[in-house]
Amino acid sequence: MAKKKNQDSGCLIVFVLFIVLGIIHDKFGDSGIIITGVVIAFIAVCAIYANLKMKSGAGYTESDGYDQKSGLYKNKKNNDLSKRFYCHDLSIKIPPCLEGPVQIKSFSDKNVTYRVDLDIMRCTCGDFVEVRSEFNATDPRRLCKHLISAIFEHGTIDHLPDYSKLILTSAHEQKKGVVPYQRYVVCDIGESQAVFAVPQNNYEWLNVYARNRMGANGKPGRYRRFGYSTIENRWAYGYAPPRASEIRRAVAVLMEAYS
Ligand SMILES: [Zn+2]
Fold this sequence. Notes:
Elements: H1 2-56, E1 66-67, E2 72-73, H2 81-84, E3 87-89, E4 102-105, E5 113-117, E6 122-123, H3 126-132, H4 145-154, H5 162-173, E7 182-189, E8 192-199, E9 205-211, E10 223-229, E11 234-235, H6 244-258
Antiparallel strand pairs: 1-2, 3-7, 4-5, 5-6, 7-8, 8-9, 9-10, 10-11
């Protein structure tokens, strides 16, 4: 029934289009037709793009197996992370260091130094060579404590989003590298983004880097780290981020997809 209705309206659009094109041709000649053609093609591309965007995220209905209440898909074929939350792996790009490769002292042995190259994100320490070198150049898991140190001493993080700044700053303050046994995924939560550090080794706690509650002046809060127990399904110290139920649904989906 719906298909027949679509066909009817399609025929009507084509019919009206022909009449309009005829009028344009009479008034403006061939150039009028060309301009109209370009405008129609542009509108069609926009419509196709909007449709694709809707399919990849919003606008899901019960017929897709989407359960509004739980935020999960009952239908297994739609059980795809990207369709429920706009998510992508966190990527951290640091501009090349003008001084070239730099020497960073070992944190435990003052007689040892490592060669750190911010251009290709490399360090000569054992942690980097054995654990981190397999990750690609913009993957935060590549960042050993010496790379972090080099970023703060010889590079810049000013261009990065606040959540990346928080992850790097806390690693730097603790004199540690970015934890390599977690997958860092950025998801849109409402108007803002949250980073989920999904544990890869059956570790109970999952960190969420999300905006805190609004400040007194009504401005969005700063990013902070929230701990979530994936076993007890509760927030550390009972302190939940804003939009906690949405974030919990994202945690469930990410754990299912990546842990
Ligand atoms: Zn290192």
